[in-house]
Amino acid sequence: MKELRIATSLDEALALVADGYQPVAGGTDLVVAARGGKSELPDHVVAIDRLTELSEIDSSDGGLQIGATVSHARLMRDESVIDGFTALADAAALVGSPATRNVGTIGGNVMNASPAMDTGSPLMVLDSEIVLRSVGGERRVPVSDFWTGPGQTVSQPDELCIAVAMPDLPSESGSAYVRLEYRRAMEIAVVGAGAVVSLNPEGDGRVVGVSLALTAVAPTIIAVGGIADALIGRAIDESALADVAALAGDQASPISDLRASDDYRRHTVGVMARRAVEAASRRAAGASIPVPVNRSVGIGAVT
Amino acid sequence: MSHEFELVVNGVTYPVDVDPSRSLLNVIREEVGLTGTKEGCDDCECGACMVLLDGQPVNSCSYLAAQTEGRSVTTIEGIMNGDELAEIQKDMLDEGGVQCGFCTPGMIISATALFARNPDPTKDEIQIGLSGNLCRCTGYGRILEAMKHTAADRG
Fold it and tell me: What's the rounded Cα separation, in Å, for the pair A30 and A114?
């Protein structure tokens, strides 16, 4: 690296990004990759972690807009996230260690575009938009169109991710994220699944809305197609959960690597999918399952 | 190729002029000269390099020193109360939580951050608080006992 600039305003940061500076916040991807020898630090870097414009969690206009530099530690403790967008808190609580969560950010996750990112499936099922700003203006991209491959997004070089935004869920809804992990900290998802379930407000336990997304089984986070057709009108029982697992396994296209084989991932992503749907539906029905689901015995944790 | 700024470590201001690629760990050890903060993996995995940045734990091996300009860094050398060991340090000695000692500064930094946020943590909360720190000697049992001792004294 030749130069590090510490931006003091969003306009300054955007001008530097337009000039080719790469943004850094906590450095848990950019700097760690350089330490590990995966890639060199860019020549010109702009630190954006002090920009108050990017550090807000705002629910004033309905829904939630989360500034790009909001850390995982804040996401896992924020009442508005835990209450209304619980899957995101489940995911944030599993990232790295306390030190990683303290400096790692949601914007960094989104732009790093790892197919194993824990916050990815929650953002997908919560119907999020990625807010991109450049000197020329702002645009919002649905997260389902945003990631195009490992480390690849539709953002342009002069654009900075400034926030993620998501609408409120309907009443009687719940969300959850569950992952398979070999250890409880400093871990990357072997596979994972996020779900939103909305139940009939009349209290008959039948599903009126559902979405499901999968982690680390494809080149990007993927939404599971056909899940609404499969579940709407049904109660979340053993037969429904078996269908969820089958659908997830069918749509997964995992690779084999040192952490798991493709067959193992295809099987276990079904298990994670059914746990995520079960936890989301129990939360939708008013059950209190603490964040993260992965530490909740009987669903995420092994007894 | 250089970045000139004032680095504040344990309340002392050090003017430094360093390559902006250098890690906080490297600058603390090589420029400031405080070697209590350890380099283990140098890859953000082991936690031996843990310091506090504005009171929150950070892996200093993978944090750019230049990004700390205007902020306050606390290392293991800044944990003591004057000439007295901090409570957590005493408990680590009393419970035998130190063997080779290489992970100890990072463990104590993480514990300091944990106790600042949560004076009376449960065993689970202590384990999560220390989950970014690896120890290859103790099997963690005696470290946990030390932390539980500190928690009991504070609770």
Answer: 13
**A191-199, strands of its sheet edge to edge:** A173-180, A191-199, A207-215, A222-223
**Rounded Cα distance, A119 and A192, in Å:** 10
Chain B residues touching residue A45 (CB < 8 angstroms): 20, 64
CATH number, position B27: 3.10.20.30
Say if A286 falls within a structural domain. yes
Q: Over the stretch A117-156, which tens digit does the pLDDT of each residue have?
A: 999 999 999 999 999 999 999 999 999 999 999 999 999 9
Q: B68 with B123, same domain?
A: no
Of A28, A99, A184, the CB nearest to B57: A99
What is the CB neighbour count within 10 angstroms for residue A145? 11
pLDDT at residue A298 is higher than 90: no
Query: B148: domain range?
Result: 87-154
Q: Which comes out higher in pLDDT, residue A40 or A157? A: A157
Question: Which chain B residues are closer than 8 Å to A26 by Cβ?
Answer: 63
Is residue A96 within 8 angstroms of chain B, CB to CB?
yes
Three-state secondary structure call for residue B155: coil
The pLDDT value given to residue B155: 67
CA separation for the pair A141, A130 (Å, rounded): 5
Alpha-helix residue ranges (DSSP H) falling in A38-85? 72-77, 79-84
Whether residue A282 is contained in a domain is answered as yes
**Does any CB of chain A come closer than 8 Å to the CB of residue B61?**
yes
What CATH number does residue A249 fall under? 3.30.390.50
Domain count, chain A: 1
The residue range of the domain holding A190 is 173-293
Chain B: residue whose CA lies nearest to A50: B67
Contact of A102 with B57, CB cutoff 8 Å: yes
Which among A24, A34, A98 is the nearest to B57, CB-wise? A98
CA distance B35 to chain A (A): 20
Rg (CA), chain B: 15
Query: Tokens 């405080």, residue?
Result: B34
